[in-house]
Amino acid sequence: MPESSLVKDGRSSSVEYGASPLRQFSQSSLLLHRNSYMLGTFCTEHNVQQCLSHINQEISSLGLPPVWTESGNSSELNIVAVLNCMYDLIQLHRRGLRTLESMEVEQLKSSSNIDHLQLTITRLKEQLELSKRENTGLLERERQLQLKAKSLQSCLKNEKEEVQKLQNIIASRASQYNHEMKRKEREFNKLKERLNQLLVDKKEKKQAIDVLNNIGRADGKRSLWKTEKTEAKHEGEMYKTLLSDYDARQRELVLENAELRKVLQQMKKDMVSILSSRKPAVKSDKPEHSGVQARSEEEEEEVFDSSKESVELYCVHAREKLTNSIRLQWRRLKSHVERLDSQASLVQMVESKDTDAVPQETQEEEMDRLKLEIQQCKDFIQTQQQLLQQQLSSPCDEETASLLSNCYMLQEKERLGEEWKTLEEQRKIFERERKNFTEAAIRLSHERKAFEEDRATWLKHQFLNLSPFADSKKTPLLKSKSAFLISAETEAPEKLIKCHSDTASPTPRCVPLASASTADLYRTLCLIPENSSVQPKTNGEHVEESSMFCGDVFVQHQQWEHSEDHTPSQEKNSSI
Amino acid sequence: MNFSEVFKQSNQLCKVSPDGKYLATCVQYRLVVRDVSTLQIMHLYTCLDQISHMEWSSDSLFILCAMYKRGLVQVWSLEQPDWHCKIDEGSIGLVSSRWSPDGRHILNTTEFHLRITVWSLCTKAVSYIKYPKACQKGIDFSRDGSYMALAERRDCKDFVSIFVCDDWHLLRHFETETQDLAGLEWSPNGCVLAVWDSCLEYKVLLYSLDGRLLSTYSAYEWSLGVKSVSWSPSSQFLAIGSYDEKVRIINHITWKKIAQFEHPATVESTKTVYKEVERRPAVAHSSTPRVNVLTNFVSLINSLLLPHLDEICSLPVQIPVVKPDPDRANPKIGVSVLAFSSDNHYLATKNDNMASAVWVWNMQKMSLEAVLEQTSAVRCFQWDPRHPRLALCTGNTKLYLWSPGGCVAVQVPTEGGFQVHSLNWHCSDNSLILLGKEQLCLCYMETDEEDK
């Protein structure tokens, strides 16, 4: 906040400064004057003139109207001007005071600002110092921690080594212990044997059973002799129990399987029903992919049907088929559900936008169609361009084609340059001829004038000879004739200018003016030969060419044609 | 729920005959046989010394009483009270005695596991089985009593012998892939034999009846392994409790793990946690609305006045854990007891370092169904053989019952403080035998309620 206020202050003060230099100056000068008045020796009776001039100068330098005007020799003060001036000066003075005040206030403000800023600076410096100290502290701590981490790492390493060592010790001890155990056990067994032997040998206190009378077996049967047969029987019984167990387990599994199969079939049925109800919708949705999909679906159906027949078979192949078909259908169902989900979300979105779903779809379709069209058009354009390129350049690849086209352009340029030269020469020749013609025309006009004069004199003579009123009749006729001539002469250039402005040729006006006038003259005089009618045409052509030379070749070609097209109109213009 | 009067017993020797008609108890050197329904003494037998082991024969006709100190076994007949049989193992000693499944043979294991002597009561014949292995569970009969699996140790290698119990014919004898075989157990259908290694190695081997190795399962290496193994009654699952405080359930088709039950100290996902709270009888259950009481149970046992009820806790629940001493052998950690309910639906487990909690798992959902947190360590728990109902005791004067419907604690209403140390369900009758230190009493469930 203090910064922003500071900026504001600075700006305002700068504005003040920008406005004030003149005022300052005036103020200082006024003060100076006052001081001089105080001294009281500024103006005396002797130096009134000098004072006046001095004040005048000062005032004029202040940009005020002069107080004193030297009207001739009289050096009188213009009192009004002086008063005005004084008033202005007072105003200036007041303004100066005001500004001074404001400046002082400004000064105060800025000084307090400076104080404040200095305070903040000191505070910030303190903070900086503090943070620096903290930073160093933290760095120190980090270093210590790093050291600690290093030591810990080394510790860890040591510990790991220790662990390894201990593990090795444990392993060795375990093996030793096992060995000892075995030894002990053997000894123990030996002792047992010995004990057994001793007990058997002793016979002092024999083991005995004392039964009042033998009891029958629990099953009431008599005990049997141990024979091969009993052994076989035992084996058989054992296997029987095992078999019965496996049998039971298998039955359980079969039951479970049947249950699962039932569930599976139910699921399949449901899936098929769902999918079959969905199929037409899919076809309508995606007309392009439907063909492929339909085929695959048919295949799936086939697989399913075949598996359906063999559901009860325990054939591996059938099972594989079944699982495959299930998997496929499951996948389709999943995608279906996913699509439904996405559709649902779309519908929701649409609902939130309060627009109908169908128009949007159609819109999208339309958009797609248009996009397709655009793409097609683009393709078409591209192929066209390619064909064009091929036609222009020989059937080479593009690089050479461009190279060739460049060469072609250069050649064209050269050719055009040559043509240009020849045309330039021709133009010169034409100009020379034109000059000759104009000279001839001038001569002719002179001759005609002379001839007119001759005829006039001749007519006068004749008139004078024929009637006394011959003089009065003769002058208007002559006048009208001369008037006609003058108008004709002024009209032609105007037309020519017009036509030239139409064609907008950069050639100087005088030349076509001359040429047109000459042509006009010839025409009026019926002096133009039949082949010379080409002259203006070639001239126009030439002009066009020069103006368009710097353009592209193609453009130039076009321009050529264009200028050729234009020439008749130019002719017309000029003929008018 | 009713309780019988208290009877004396010693060494916690008190068993109901397999047919459920008689109750045999040992008091010092006397054997008392009572009728279960009337509790009248039917027979009284006097043995030569204090009885250290007593067992009914499978046909409920004979009772075996072993006096290990004297190396003597005495057999009594219910039908012929004057019939007697005495087996003297002599100086070779006796550490274990048991009936064969047919009830006509007695298998005595001599000291140092020198051999197993098989005595026939029919023929007085004696036969020996050498090299039996001294281990957690070295001998197991199949459920139908036709086969016996015996762990043997020869030349520092483990073997399993399968005998036909009928005539002690050795059916199969094969070496097992164990370092130190710790136990074996038949599947209830008698077709698969589960064999597990000692706790140093986690290894469970599954053998077919004909000795084929069906599968080997090992969950991890190096640390202490299997602590307990239990088949589900349907033979469908094999639950393996181990020292890592987990139970792994293996299926019977692929023999692969299908579930793993952990016993975390903080229970976060279960249906209910029942926590036993000590409370004065006066403020029993009117003050706290959260107390979960099976109302029918309460009405049932109203006369007994339940002072302690289990409370349903809101999750998560912290279960007290006791850190085992790492320096001692057989650390008190890991799942030591596993019990499937008779209908295969539930599995109850106990983790040794959370001795006060019993975990009940639902085997259909393979998830934790309930946790029963008691105030003291659980001594014993057992499933009702006919219903999904778990009875447990913690060495105090109460009996705890859990069923899917809820949990209830019952004070045993006897004078002089009957502390329940162990309990046994009657095989068919709807009753429980509660064993104290020197006493026993029967607890009868209300049969009418059950019929409903």
How would you concisely characterize the structure shown here?
The complex is a heterodimer of chains A (576) and B (452). By secondary structure, chain A is mainly alpha-helical.
Notes on the protein architecture:
Chain B: InterPro entries: Centrosome-WD_assoc, Quino_amine_DH_bsu, WD40/YVTN_repeat-like_dom_sf, WD40_rpt. Chain B: This is WD repeat containing, antisense to TP73. The complex is a heterodimer of chains A (576) and B (452). By secondary structure, chain A is mainly α. Helix content of chain A is 84%, strand content 1%. Chain A has helices at 2-19, 21-39, 48-62, 79-202, 228-285, 290-309, 316-353, 357-392, 398-466, 470-503, 510-525, 534-548, 553-575; one strand at 208-211. In chain A, helix 12 (534-548) runs antiparallel to helix 13 (553-575). Chain A is elongated, with a radius of gyration of 64 Å. With 452 residues, chain B is mainly β. In chain B, the strands form ten sheets. Chain B has a six-stranded mixed beta sheet, with no helix packed on it. In chain B, strand 12 (105-109) and strand 13 (115-120) form a beta hairpin. The radius of gyration of chain B is 23 Å and the shape is globular. Mean pLDDT of chain B is 85; it is low at 280-308. The interface between A and B is large, with 39 and 43 residues. Strand 1 of chain A pairs antiparallel with strand 10 of chain B, so a sheet runs across the interface.
